[in-house]
Specification:
It contains two helices and seven strands; from the N terminus they run ββαβββαββ. The chain has helices at 22-45, 99-104; strands at residues 5-10, 15-20, 57-67, 74-79, 90-95, 117-124, 131-138. The chain is of the alpha+beta class. β1 and β2 (15-20) form a beta hairpin. Strands 3-4-5-7-6 form a five-stranded mixed beta barrel. A two-stranded antiparallel ribbon has the order 1-2.
């Protein structure tokens, strides 16, 4: 990129100084604005405002898929309707932390497998869709997996 600054002689101090042209200043302002927008988008992405942290739901179902991926791991669980055993199960997608965060809590890539019967406690999505943020998972053997977050009593 061509240098857009100018050297200007200052007769009072008897030396040259660098003066920035409006184009360079505008470019710097644009880059600063882009950086601020990207930072706010990253903050919003990691925000948990989409989950109702004042409510908890309990999902009892069968693991369809355990996705050990960045930036967040997911459990897809098929939950039968307790009021209508003939109805097809409803698929819920529950979000977890990043793999590195889960490893610190004792999780492994194969902690859950398709077909495992699980009980999940989660904060539901505020919009009522079938999703949430995992607080704890009880595996098919009745043990709580990892080191779960505190759940409300």
């Amino acid at each position: 990129m061509k240098n857009l600054s100018l050297l200007v002689y200052n007769s009072t101090s008897n030396h040259l100084r660098r003066a920035y042209t409006p184009v360079r200043s505008a470019l710097q302002l644009f880059l600063l604005a882009a950086l601020l927008i990207a930072a706010s988008a990253a903050f919003a992405h990691h925000s948990r405002t989409m989950f109702d942290t004042n409510k908890q739901i309990t999902l009892v179902g069968t693991v369809k898929d355990f996705q050990w991926t960045n930036p967040h791991c997911w459990i897809q669980v098929l939950v039968p309707d307790p009021n209508d055993p003939n109805a097809p199960p409803v698929e819920w997608g529950v979000e977890m932390g990043a793999p590195v965060e889960l490893m610190r809590k004792g999780w492994k890539p194969h902690s859950l497998n398709p077909g495992d019967k699980v009980t999940i406690i989660a904060n539901p999505l505020r919009d009522g869709q079938h999703g949430g943020l995992v607080l704890s998972v009880t595996g098919p053997d009745g043990r709580v997996l990892g080191h779960p977050a505190e759940t409300q009593k």
